[in-house]
Description:
By secondary structure, the protein is an alpha+beta fold. It has 4 helices and 11 strands. The chain has helices spanning 44-55, 88-92, 144-156, 161-169; strands at 4-5, 11-14, 17-25, 28-33, 67-71, 76-79, 96-100, 113-116, 121-124, 129-132, 138-142. The protein has a 5-stranded antiparallel β-sheet. It has a 4-stranded antiparallel β-sheet with strand order 1-2-3-4, with no helix packed on it. The chain has a two-stranded antiparallel ribbon with strand order 5-7. A hairpin with a 2-residue loop joins strand 2 (11-14) and strand 3 (17-25). Helix 3 (144-156) crosses helix 4 (161-169). It is elongated. The relative contact order is 0.13.
Amino acid sequence: MSLQFNQHTGKITYRGKEVGEYIFKDGRSKVRINIEYEGGNDWVVPLSWFSHGLSLLTENQPAPSSLTVETSEDCIAEEFEVIRFLTEKQVKRGGYKWDFHKSDADDWPSPLHGHDYEKQLKLDAITGKVYDVGTREWCKTLKKDDLQVIQATLRASKDFKEVVVNLIDKT
């Protein structure tokens, strides 16, 4: 059963219980949702799809990247068995395309990180650890040589040179 919306009252229900509301005031829409889930350990999949849906909202679309670095599929040194939010399209794609943003509002997993939007991954460009965006689990590790190539590419960029020097070179 999906969420039900009553356009007359603005109430959002799930399985007969009120879980949220829709408010339209001063020309702006606001939606509040509060869902409590009881059950087995399968909660991460529906939550990942909910998260994916929110990521499609215009306000959550990535800003144009300042620098994109592509790496091959064989650049991974380690891979871990963790729950990952994947779709068929993402599984079929080979290689990685890391987008780095000059002014990224979010500093997870580190202040210097890249996004692979197709595979829903984030690369910590300091350590080489790769994380699943949906679960925030460490799921891969870049090979040292490939990490150094990415760091060198960032270092050569006028937008990222100072950050690389401060976070990598000075440590």
